[in-house]
What does this fold into?
Amino acid sequence: MIPSTAFPNPNWSQELSVDELLASTTAGEQAVARGRVAVVGVLFIVQIAVFLSNSSHPEYRWGVMVSGIGLSVALLIKQLADRRVGPRNLPMLSSLYDVTCVTLLHVGDLLRDQASIAVNGRVAFTLYFIAIVGTIVRWDKRVCLAAGIAAGVQYMMIIAWSYAIWPASPTSDVLAYGGFDLGVQIERVITLVIFAWICMRIARRGLDLRASASRDLLTGTFSRQLFIERLHEEILRSARARTHLCVAILDIDHFKLVNDQYGHHAGDAALHAFGKLLREGLRRTDMVARWGGEEFVVMLPETSESDAAEKMEHLRRLLNNYSIDVGGGASVKLTVSIGIAPMLPGADDVDRMIKAADQRLLSAKRGGRDRIVTTEVPALP
It folds into this structure.
């Protein structure tokens, strides 16, 4: 008998691993990538306009070349983010890239012997904060922390370099931007670190909220919205890797009778027990979500249709062999109808796969329930 009166702990969201959550938050990286392309693209256009106004100036020619390289890198990162083909740590690498680009602006001032602009200028230094803010939407405190540490360390190197080449007598940039004040520079570094810590806390809170929205509290399974997002990503990955992918929709048979005969609390207990059975009976790489009511949906990566049918048949028989405790000394036995759809040409998007699985689920119900319907195996009694 499966006990079902113990509902998920309020801290159930901790069951969702950080990596699983971060894998579903690619929208943040894509948004930052688009913003990066827009900003660098504008800078590139400005550099071209300046160069055309005075093409003989070597510094303007250098500016066009540098901004052009920056735009090329930004477009590459955007392509990797949009196609989800970049390295798993792309958010970390792109954030460090943003911080380093800001540091290179300071390096440019130092190479022109303008040390005061490098350490006292406000525009370039403010860009550090913009780069760190962009880490929040990655929902990864590790990225925030790494960007903050990188900004602090790199800026300290700028401080040391500036001090080493500081002119003995005031130059035009020193007169315009001020002298070297070590106390001010320490304050700047501390401000960067504190700001990164604040962003890290915001990202952590955002990740917690993401976890709360990613699980169905009653069954402990994933939410419908997160399942759709992950299925879309898995369809793209499977298409690139040419691997199998299947989706199964499961519906508890005659579930309304449980509510009518034993009450809604008993129905909740049965749903919780069924969700637990699914979570424990599937691989870690599989994904199960509550689709609505007594319907559940399962994603089976790198699984052929025949293997998916075999796995679902195992779960169906497992459910048939158990009685579920619904409280008050009562127990119920449940059966489930299942429809399975593989990823096929012409049926390789979320809507079509779900629709195909739902149609086969309907066939399973019409065929007498407590069975599985696939394209390969019409019915498993």
Remarks:
- The first strand starts at residue 2 and ends at 3.
- The longest helix spans residues 182-214.
- The two ends are 23 Å apart (CA to CA).
